[in-house]
Amino acid sequence: GCVAQRGARDNVLGFSLLASQQVLFRWLVEPRGLRPTLSTRRDTPVHYIHSQQTHRTLKGVMQACTHQLKGGNTTAGAVVNGGPTSRGGMTKTRLPTVSRRMLARRRVLGAKSTTRRSSRGLGGRRPNQDGSVIAAVGLPQRHFMMMGKDGVVPRAAMVEEPESKSSAVPSSDGVGPVDGVLQDQEKIRNIAIIAHVDHGKTTLVDAMLAQSNVFRENQQVEERVMDSNDLERERGITITSKNTAVSYKGTKINIIDTPGHADFGGEVERVLRMCDGVLLLVDSVEGPMPQTRFVLKKALELGIRVLVVVNKIDRPAARPDYVIDHTFELFCDLGAPDDLCDFPVVYCSGMRGVAGMEPEELSEDLGPLFESILREVPPPRVVVDGPTQVLVTSIDFDPHKGRIAIGRVGAGTMKRGEYAVVKPGAEARTGKAAEVFTYANFQRVPCDEVEAGDICAFVGMPNIAIGETVACKSCPKPLAKIEVEKPTVRMKFLVNTSPFAGREGEFINSRDIKNRLERELERNLALSVEPGQSADEFVVCGRGTLHITILIETMRREGFEFQIGPPSVITSVNEETGAKEEPYEIAIVEAPEEHVGACVDLLGNRSGRMLDMVASENLGTTTIKYRLPTRGLLGLKNHMLTATKGSAVLNTIFDGYDEFGGEIKTREQGSLVAFATGQSTQYALKDVQERGQLFIAPGMDIYEGQVIGIHQRSGDLPVNAAKAKKATNVRSNAEIKVQVAAPKEMSLDDCIEYIAADELVEVTPTSIRMRKNPKGLKAGRLY
Fold this sequence. Notes:
The chain is of the alpha+beta class and 783 residues long. It is 19% helix and 31% strand.
């Protein structure tokens, strides 16, 4: 009801009353069924005053204004006659300063609101008997107008509350949930844990499992127990989503651990269809990161309730206020509705297994987190007595049972028997569920039937695929198909044609490679495979180089031998203008202050445009934000780590398609290429190493056309690394032996980032080599 105008200083607010006391009092007291949307500018600071709904008086509002004018504590708010604990209508409640954009997304809570803001930021939410209302202070006068007896209201449209649906609404095209009365399954909660990479999702799941008595007291439990395969443990990241379940106070909580890297965002998009709520983990120091934005966007699009968990709160540099405010701003930027913007917050440490509603008041266990899940995450709202309807969202494989389909029972019950397998736009077929499982205590437990709202797994349908619906034969109605983001990067998979082909691999022909790629498409929706220019060539498209690299490494460990080409972006044509477009990404780099210049040069040379630069005084680092073509990110990681001595952290997120950015030069140096087949010798390498940096050591088998090092200048240089010293009958003990420097070790990721357009990577179960593409050579020779 009060308007703040700028004073002589930015931190001083002068208040002026717009209406008479009677009109203002009526506006504060009279309940409103409609919620006005505040239309504001970005450049004016805004403060929120929390005032109790009951016994609101003009005196308390004026006291709050007077307190601000007299230079009172900026973290003190006004609670008007807040009950017996208040003194003179005042109590200390945090007044966070927010931007105009944030306030434009915010709506004044209605008179029947039953929540109040936490003292630790904008996102807190906890039950309050008296309720609360937020009065905005700091709005320019032009955003208010007189409305007769109704008092002062914002100049904005009035938004009515949406009506809740009590029954399933059938769609017109025969796709959607079955008809019936929706009921809440109070004894079930389905949640997914989503976050940016390395924010502690899997570690938190380990603590939740341990405190739910899932393991025996004498059982040996590995760290990050949800990361089950070798690649996940080696790289320290989650690659595929996994299901488990715990029980808390008689309520079953199905937990889905999801990947945190942007390249595996397709896994997150799939499993969100099984959830009614998500735990959004945010690091207490880093705050929201690029992948946080992506996964949150997908959850908000589905209208899923979000519980924000500030993890690693025990870190010395933790800043929970900063994290909560920036998380709220992220919600606003993504256009979240009011009920989702009013997110609850829990502070925890997954490593220690403790949680609390305030960062200074942590419990001895994760009890506050479990209680928040039961209180804030809605139970599944399903048709209990209707025909069976299960959407398959994941596929697993067991060597004894075969293909295992996983999904949530949306209606009816799932048990053994015959069902109709349907999909939008396709004919229905019959399938039989031979065995049904549910998740309990970190195991897949056989059961007779699974009720609606629970997550189940079943076997017996060898051709079942992700996105298909298992429905009752009498009512074969499919659910909407699962949509995921389109791929942005492609790579060529070719049959190995090097001189060493067939020496180390078990599966080497095109038929084996094609069958393996087709099996991968069944479980990896974000991947696509296209035919190449010949029968021995396949074009694999994915979300990023890491997405495809994980597939390459998996196939290599399975015994496959093949070669791959350099990554390239997938371009498109604008239908309106006919212009060529390419994918763009937002790159966020955090580096020490002394290395910021090198990062700026690297990103600028790759057609990057700076969006923001923020220095952190406490951490001694600077965060820079760039928008650049995806082509500019190819091979950038190694160059940035070299320029910053391994101290830079690079995170990216897809930002859509835009005009083609022109030529980008990603590599300035050429390669050292062997022109003789044989075994590398120390005698030859001591001369070759003066031309650049080597990838090989003495005694290794090499062949003509193999890339054995980095040339110190631009352009490729053919060298003879297999030259041996001529034997003579003259004995010489005075020869000076020159030591060969240790070679640079190149992993699969490093090789993919290094190769140019005319080079290939040869992948075998035991070796990774780089070679020149024979199709680009004259008569198949280097010179």
